[in-house]
């Protein structure tokens, strides 16, 4: 059963490795972009959020803002426009007339972003759980066995034998010692 779980959990292990790799890549890419991309200010020209309409119909607040809109900005004297979903550039609130600081790719000024990692706290929790699972998996199914087998006197990783005293000593004293010297059997309890 141990071997079944050791190898049966490999798809989960691979999934955790992918999650951790993707998370590290996202954080590193964001860090590099913040260090190398210049900033500019964009002005929101138009915006609408269909979630606001649905929330107003239900009579509840919009708990997941997802605006779509159009922004204009100027880079090196040249005017640019961007249109799309606000979350693509890291924005959850877009109102006409708002000015938002964004980073832009110097090789492609159409590539803009606030470089705010939306959902970063949830992603960090998922990465931490994946890392904890991997640490436990490798310790429990792989490292623990190697650490236990490191003693050369441990025969076939016998757990009971590994805790037993290697050279037991018997100390006899008192009346029983005399009976063994004379060749008599010692009995305990009734016969």
Poorly predicted residue ranges:
none
SSE run: HHEHEEEEHHH
Main sheet specs: 5 strands, antiparallel
The end-to-end span amounts to: 46 Å
Global structural class = alpha+beta
Number of strand segments: 5
Mean pLDDT: 85
> In percent terms, what proportion of residues is strand?
15-25%
Integer-rounded radius of gyration: 34 Å
Helix content: 40-55%
Query: What topology, given as strand order, has the largest sheet?
Result: 3-2-1-4-5
Total tally of structural domains: 2
Number of helices: 6
Q: Per the principal axes of the C-alpha atoms, what is the gross shape?
A: elongated
Account of the 3D structure:
The chain has 6 helices and 5 strands; from the N terminus they run H-H-E-H-E-E-E-E-H-H-H. The protein has 191 residues and is an alpha+beta fold. It folds into 2 domains: 1-37 and 117-151; 38-114, no CATH class. Helix 2 packs across helix 4 (120-148). The chain is elongated, with a radius of gyration of 34 Å. It starts with a helix and ends in a 10-residue tail after the last helix. The model has no long low-confidence stretch (mean pLDDT 85).
């Amino acid at each position: 059963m141990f071997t079944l779980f050791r190898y049966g959990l490999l798809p989960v292990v691979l999934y955790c490795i992918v999650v951790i790799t993707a998370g590290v890549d996202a954080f590193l890419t964001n860090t590099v972009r913040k260090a190398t991309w210049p900033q500019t200010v964009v002005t929101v020209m138009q915006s609408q959020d269909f979630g606001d309409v649905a929330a107003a119909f239900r009579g509840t607040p919009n708990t997941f803002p997802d605006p779509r809109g159009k922004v204009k900005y100027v880079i090196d004297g040249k005017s640019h426009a961007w249109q799309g979903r606000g979350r693509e550039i890291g924005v959850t609130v877009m109102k006409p007339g708002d000015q938002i600081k964004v980073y832009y790719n110097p090789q492609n000024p159409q590539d803009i972003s606030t470089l705010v990692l939306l959902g970063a706290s949830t992603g960090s929790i998922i990465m931490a759980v994946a890392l904890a699972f991997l640490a436990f998996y490798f310790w429990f199914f792989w490292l623990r066995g190697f650490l236990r087998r490191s003693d050369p006197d441990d025969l076939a990783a016998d757990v009971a034998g590994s805790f037993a005293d290697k050279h037991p000593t018997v100390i006899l004293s008192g009346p029983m010692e005399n009976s063994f010297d004379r060749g008599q059997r010692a009995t305990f309890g009734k016969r």
